[in-house]
């Protein structure tokens, strides 16, 4: 049973929650740029939370259903349509053999997630299908390729799926200006009070230089008293500040170690919200702490477990 | 030892602030100890020159619990410090011919040494694996003799061929795959540094010792070496 890619668009990648346990040999984690949307898509279908999905960046992606199943779409509104009828994200949809699913152009956000009942069944590489093109790992066939026209995305027959949608208070508005909590750490003490004040009071803009490795922001330059540091491990969401003073937020395909000073780190959920913004979007930061980020994540995990209208509990 | 929170499920443990054998030894032993004793909660470890980044499962443990167990794991390192050195030495054959040692002339010009002297100095000592990163299996080895220390190329190559052995400052490294890069290339190894189908994946690990063995063109080819430019 499968869905066939009839138009691969700009960038459509197979992702699960990431490739863990290999960073010590330099293999990055990969995984969904927006965990919040990814996890809800699997939750809507009562899938395992790690089940493989398609991450669609920017739209222009089309699939043909060769069999009946249920899908869920979350994240960006990329103008999805089934048989040329507009459908809404953040809910499940029934598709039948012969149906065509099209993502047209972004309405809000940048990255949509498409999950199928039971999850897609791509090849696994080092225990994961997360596509990291730079490393030639993951994806449908295991070699790091993005999805291409003609690819067959296989799945198992669907199980007891019902119409379900994510609770409205869980659905973000990606058009809103973002204010992200920064967990101080790494080289935070090496940024003076004045530099910190600049960083936390300035609005930064998402630049043209954004990809799955990192988001370059532009705005008031900030400087630490360090020219470089002894290279060390980099977490998802870490905020590097190179010598030009323009922050770079490191995303899912980041290199594992690096030598630029870092003012702090975002939580995974906050970094995921940034991943839904394109060039020109406004971003600001506030001083948060690790206890807050821990509590927010635990609460999110509980809401995810509790589910939503129409979803049975695990 | 100093433990700092990074985000909701990551912390970093510092074992010093200077690159050197003592930090590298502590990082290696601590990484092994953490891997052994905290497998139930640790998701990923990134050892580097002086630190280990630790990601953990927030559903099983929080930042306070992790810090407590990391301290215990590090104490075991202190206790076990005299139980003998467990590091391996990996010998890598290297062909230093000018057709693959793309920057050997530049190193000679910069250092005022002959090619024979550069090769001799580079292959005479063993090196510690301080960190792995940049690309899968890319091992940072140190420290080279100061006489052959040369800065990175001012313009990086768009393609450094797989197996290339390079120098940057007092560090040396092998490119496990063809990537862009700015290290000064002095030779090439026919040895695969990373093999996705093997059990160990990467040939060397943080804490290992590496020694280079000069080989001639014929042995390089016999061992499966490629003279391709990319």
TrEMBL record, chain A:
Sorted UniProt keywords: ATP-binding, Hydrolase, Nucleotide-binding
InterPro entries on file: CT_A_B, Cyclophilin-like_dom_sf, PxpC
Pfam families named among the record's database cross-references: CT_A_B
Record carries keyword Nucleotide-binding: yes
Occurrences of domain Carboxyltransferase (ranges): 24-304
GO molecular function (one): ATP binding
PANTHER family, per the entry: 5-OXOPROLINASE SUBUNIT C (PTHR43309), CARBOXYLTRANSFERASE DOMAIN-CONTAINING PROTEIN (PTHR43309:SF4)
Name this polypeptide is given: Allophanate hydrolase
Organism ancestry: Bacteria, Pseudomonadati, Pseudomonadota, Gammaproteobacteria, Pseudomonadales
From TrEMBL, chain B:
InterPro entries: CT_C_D (IPR003833), Cyclophilin-like_dom_sf (IPR029000), PxpB (IPR010016)
MF terms (GO), sorted A to Z: ATP binding; hydrolase activity
Key words, A-Z: ATP-binding, Hydrolase, Nucleotide-binding
SMART domains per the UniProt record, alphabetical: AHS1 (SM00796)
Domain Carboxyltransferase: 1-204
PANTHER family: 5-OXOPROLINASE SUBUNIT B (PTHR34698)
Protein name: Allophanate hydrolase
Source species taxonomy: Bacteria, Pseudomonadati, Pseudomonadota, Gammaproteobacteria, Pseudomonadales
């Amino acid at each position: 049973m499968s869905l066939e890619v009839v138009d691969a668009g700009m960038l459509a990648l197979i992702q699960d929650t990431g490739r863990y346990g290999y960073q010590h040999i330099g293999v990055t984690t990969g995984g969904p740029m927006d965990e919040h949307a990814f996890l809800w898509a699997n939750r809507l279908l009562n899938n395992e939370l790690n089940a493989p999905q398609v991450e669609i960046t920017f739209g222009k992606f089309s699939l043909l259903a060769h069999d009946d199943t249920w899908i869920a779409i979350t994240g960006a509104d990329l103008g999805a349509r089934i048989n040329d009828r507009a459908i809404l994200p953040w809910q499940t949809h029934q598709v039948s053999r012969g149906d065509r699913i099209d993502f047209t152009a972004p309405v809000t956000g940048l990255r949509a997630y498409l999950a199928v009942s039971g999850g897609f069944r791509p090849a696994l590489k080092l225990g994961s299908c997360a596509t990291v093109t730079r490393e030639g790992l993951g994806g449908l066939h295991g070699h790091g390729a993005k999805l291409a026209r003609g690819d067959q995305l296989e799945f198992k027959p669907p199980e007891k799926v019902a119409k379900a949608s994510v609770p409205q208070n869980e659905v973000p508005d990606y058009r809103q200006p973002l204010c992200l909590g920064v967990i101080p750490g790494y080289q935070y003490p090496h940024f003076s009070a004045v530099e910190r004040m600049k960083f936390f009071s300035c609005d930064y803009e998402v630049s043209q230089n954004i990809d799955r490795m990192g988001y370059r922001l532009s705005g008031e330059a900030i400087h630490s008293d360090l020219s470089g540091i002894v290279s060390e491990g980099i977490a998802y969401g870490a905020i590097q500040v190179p010598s030009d003073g323009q922050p770079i937020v490191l995303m899912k395909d980041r290199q594992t170690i690096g030598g630029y000073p870092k003012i702090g780190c975002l939580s995974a959920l906050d970094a995921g919200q940034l991943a839904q913004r394109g060039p020109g979007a406004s971003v600001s930061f506030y001083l948060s702490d690790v206890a807050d980020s821990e509590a927010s994540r635990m609460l999110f995990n509980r809401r995810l477990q509790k589910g939503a209208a129409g979803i049975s509990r695990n | 030892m100093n433990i700092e929170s990074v985000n909701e499920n990551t912390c970093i443990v510092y074992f010093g602030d200077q690159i050197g054998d003592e930090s590298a030894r502590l990082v290696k032993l601590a990484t092994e100890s953490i891997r052994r004793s905290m497998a139930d909660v640790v998701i990923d470890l990134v050892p580097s020159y002086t630190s280990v980044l630790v990601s953990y499962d927030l559903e099983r443990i929080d930042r306070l619990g992790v810090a407590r167990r990391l301290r215990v794991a590090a104490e075991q390192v202190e206790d076990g410090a005299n139980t003998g050195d467990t590091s391996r030495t990996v010998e890598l054959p290297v062909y230093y011919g000018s057709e693959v040692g793309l920057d050997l002339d530049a190193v000679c010009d910069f250092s005022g040494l002959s090619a024979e002297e550069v090769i001799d100095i580079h292959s005479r000592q063993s090196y510690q694996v301080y960190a792995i990163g940049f690309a899968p299996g890319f091992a940072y080895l140190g420290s080279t003799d100061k006489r052959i220390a040369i800065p990175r190329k001012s313009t990086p190559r768009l393609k450094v061929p797989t197996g290339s052995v390079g120098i940057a400052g007092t560090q040396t490294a092998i490119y496990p795959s063809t990537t862009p890069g700015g290290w000064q290339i002095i030779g090439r190894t026919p040895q695969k540094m990373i093999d996705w189908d093997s059990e160990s994946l990467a040939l060397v690990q943080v804490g290992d010792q590496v020694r280079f063995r000069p080989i001639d063109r014929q042995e390089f080819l016999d061992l499966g070496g490629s003279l391709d430019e990319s």
